[in-house]
Structure to design on (543 residues):
C-alpha cells in the first residue's frame, strides 16, 4: 500500500472543518480520481497527502513512512518522492520552461548541480522529452509568462513527470484546457503512470473525465468520502446526491430547480 | 430614495493625515528651518560671489589628471565597500528572511515560534550594523588605519551590509511565495528553492536596489573624503579650502556624471533582466 489515512481530520485556521475522519487506502500503481462539489475538501485532502498540511487528528502513512514523525531532513527526502500538479502551476513568470521543468528534480540533485543548471540547462534533452509527451516541446526555451493557461498546466505536468515521483497528486490538472485536450492530457498522464508504475490521485471537476480515465472514483462531500467505487459502479443518483446544492435549492423556484446547475452528467454504467 | 453609504475607510484616512501634520509641525520648528536667511543681506551676496567663482570649471591638465585619479579612487572605494557589504548582507538576508522557512510550508506561511526567535539575533545584528552612520565609522577608522581609502571602504562595508541585508530580506518576502513553496513541497532544499523560486521574481528589484545603493556609496565616499578617507571628497575639501571655485565646479560635474553613469547602468541591467 502506498498511502493510508486513518481517522484523519483537519480544521483550517478559520475554524472550517475541511476533513472529517477520513479513512483511505490506496495501493501502489492505482489511478484514482476524486470528484465532488466546490469546498468538499478535495484540495485539502491532496495537501494533506503532499505533507503541505498536518492533520489535527488521525494517522497519515505515505510510501511506508509516517511523515510527521520524521525529521525535517527526512521529510524533505520523502517529499522528493511525491509530485504535486497544481491547478495554477506556481512558476516564476520570468523563468524559462526548461528551468521550470528541471526544477522538478531539485530534491534529487545536489545543490551544486542545481546552481549549475540555473546557469546552463544541463539536461535540456530530458526536459524536451517530457514536454514532447504533452505536445509542447517547441516551448522548451520560452519564458513561462508567454504561455497560455493550458500550456502552463502542461508545463506543470511535465515538471512532475520529470521529477518521476512514486506518487503523483494532481489538483484539477486540466481545468484550463478544452475538453479534447483535457482528455488527451489525462490519457498521456495515465499512460506514463502505467508504464512507470506510478500511483496517481487526481481531483477533477469534470465528472466525465473522472469516469473515463480512472479506474477508481472517490466522491467527496462536506469533508467526508461519500462513495469509493469503480467508474462502472457509480450511479447517476449518487452523482446527483454528491453535487446537490442546498443553497441553490432553498433560493430558487421549482422551475429553476428542474434545470441542472452543474455540468451535465455523462452516461454512466 | 437612496440611503447614504459612508466609506468606512474615510475616518481612519482623515485621522492619519491629521496625525501626520501634527507630528511634522513640531519637527519643522525643532529643526529651526528658516528660509529667510538665504535671501537677506550679506549671506545672499556671499553665496553669489562664491557661485560666481565656479565659472569657468577648471580644466588644466594637472587638475584633470588629479580629478581622474580621485574619481577612480572614489569608484574603487564605493565598489570595494559594496562588495564587502554584500559578503555580509547576502547570508544575513537569507538567515533573516521568513521567505525560505521550511516550517512555514505546512503552517500556512507562518514559521514556528522558535524559528522566528532564531531570526531575531540576525535582525538585531543587521540593525546594529546600519544604525551608526558611515561618516562616524569613517572617523573611527581614519584613527585606526590612518588617512586613505581603507577607512572609507570599511565604513561603507559595515553600514551598507546592514541596509542591504535588511532590504534584501524584505524583497525576498515581498515576492510570490507559491513557487518557493511548490519547490519545497517537491523535496528541494531551501537554498535551491530560493534560487529557483524567489530569485527570478526578485532579481530586477534586487539589481535596482543594489545599483542605487552603489550610487549612494559613491556619494558617501565623497562625504567621507572630507574626514580624510580619500577620493573626490578629499579633493573637494582641498579645493573648497583654497576657494578654487573652478575646481569645485569640475568636481561637481564629475559627481553628476557618476550618478548619471549609475542610472544608465541600473537601466541596462534591469533591461537585461526584464
Amino acid at each position: 500500500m502506498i498511502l493510508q489515512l486513518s481517522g484523519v481530520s483537519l480544521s483550517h485556521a478559520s475554524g472550517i472543518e475541511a476533513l472529517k475522519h477520513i479513512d483511505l487506502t490506496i495501493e501502489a500503481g492505482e489511478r484514482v480520481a476524486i470528484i465532488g462539489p466546490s469546498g468538499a475538501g478535495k484540495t485539502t485532502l491532496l495537501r494533506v497527502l503532499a505533507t503541505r498540511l498536518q492533520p489535527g487528528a488521525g494517522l497519515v502513512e505515505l510510501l511506508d513512512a509516517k511523515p510527521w514523525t520524521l525529521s525535517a531532513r527526512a521529510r524533505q527526502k520523502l517529499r522528493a518522492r511525491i509530485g504535486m500538479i497544481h491547478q495554477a502551476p506556481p512558476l516564476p513568470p520570468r523563468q524559462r520552461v526548461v528551468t521550470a521543468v528541471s526544477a522538478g528534480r531539485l530534491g534529487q540533485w545536489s545543490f551544486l548541480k542545481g546552481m549549475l543548471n540555473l546557469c546552463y540547462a544541463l539536461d535540456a534533452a530530458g526536459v524536451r522529452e517530457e514536454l514532447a509527451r504533452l505536445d509542447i516541446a517547441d516551448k522548451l526555451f520560452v519564458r513561462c509568462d508567454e504561455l497560455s493557461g493550458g500550456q502552463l498546466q502542461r508545463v506543470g505536468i511535465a515538471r512532475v513527470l520529470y521529477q518521476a515521483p512514486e506518487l503523483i497528486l494532481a489538483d484539477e490538472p486540466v481545468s484550463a484546457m478544452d475538453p479534447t485536450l483535457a482528455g488527451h492530457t489525462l490519457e498521456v498522464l495515465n499512460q506514463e503512470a502505467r508504464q512507470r508504475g506510478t500511483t496517481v490521485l487526481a481531483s477533477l471537476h469534470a465528472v466525465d473525465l473522472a469516469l473515463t480515465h480512472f479506474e477508481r472514483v472517490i466522491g467527496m462531500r462536506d469533508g467526508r468520502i461519500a462513495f469509493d467505487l469503480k467508474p462502472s459502479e457509480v450511479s447517476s443518483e449518487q452523482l446527483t446526491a454528491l453535487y446537490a446544492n442546498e443553497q441553490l435549492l432553498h433560493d430558487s423556484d421549482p422551475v429553476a430547480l428542474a434545470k441542472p446547475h452543474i455540468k451535465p452528467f455523462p452516461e454512466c454504467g | 430614495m437612496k440611503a447614504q453609504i459612508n466609506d468606512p475607510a474615510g475616518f481612519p484616512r482623515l485621522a492619519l493625515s491629521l496625525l501626520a501634520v501634527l507630528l511634522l509641525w513640531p519637527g519643522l520648528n525643532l529643526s529651526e528651518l528658516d528660509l529667510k536667511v538665504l535671501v537677506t543681506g550679506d549671506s545672499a551676496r556671499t553665496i553669489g560671489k562664491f557661485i560666481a567663482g565656479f565659472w569657468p570649471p577648471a580644466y588644466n591638465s594637472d587638475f584633470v589628471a588629479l580629478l581622474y585619479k580621485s574619481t577612480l579612487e572614489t569608484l574603487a572605494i564605493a565598489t570595494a565597500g559594496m562588495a564587502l557589504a554584500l559578503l555580509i548582507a547576502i547570508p544575513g538576508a537569507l538567515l533573516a528572511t521568513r521567505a525560505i522557512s521550511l516550517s512555514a510550508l505546512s503552517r500556512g506561511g507562518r514559521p514556528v515560534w522558535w524559528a522566528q526567535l532564531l531570526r531575531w539575533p540576525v535582525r538585531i545584528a543587521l540593525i546594529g550594523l546600519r544604525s551608526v552612520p558611515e561618516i562616524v565609522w569613517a572617523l573611527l577608522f581614519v584613527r585606526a588605519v590612518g588617512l586613505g581609502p581603507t577607512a572609507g571602504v570599511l565604513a561603507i562595508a559595515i553600514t551598507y551590509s546592514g541596509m542591504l541585508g535588511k532590504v534584501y530580506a524584505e524583497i525576498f518576502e515581498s515576492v510570490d511565495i507559491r513557487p518557493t513553496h511548490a519547490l519545497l513541497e517537491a523535496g528541494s532544499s531551501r537554498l535551491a528553492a530560493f534560487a529557483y523560486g524567489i530569485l527570478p521574481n526578485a532579481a530586477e528589484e534586487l539589481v535596482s536596489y543594489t545599483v542605487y545603493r552603489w550610487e549612494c556609496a559613491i556619494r558617501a565616499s565623497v562625504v567621507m573624503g572630507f574626514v580624510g578617507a580619500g577620493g573626490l571628497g578629499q579633493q573637494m575639501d582641498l579645493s573648497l579650502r583654497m576657494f578654487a571655485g573652478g575646481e569645485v565646479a569640475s568636481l561637481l560635474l564629475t559627481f553628476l556624471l557618476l550618478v548619471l553613469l549609475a542610472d544608465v547602468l541600473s537601466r541596462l541591467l534591469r533591461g537585461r533582466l526584464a
Notes: The two ends of chain A are 28 Å apart (CA to CA). Confidence is low (pLDDT under 50) at residues 252-269 of chain A.
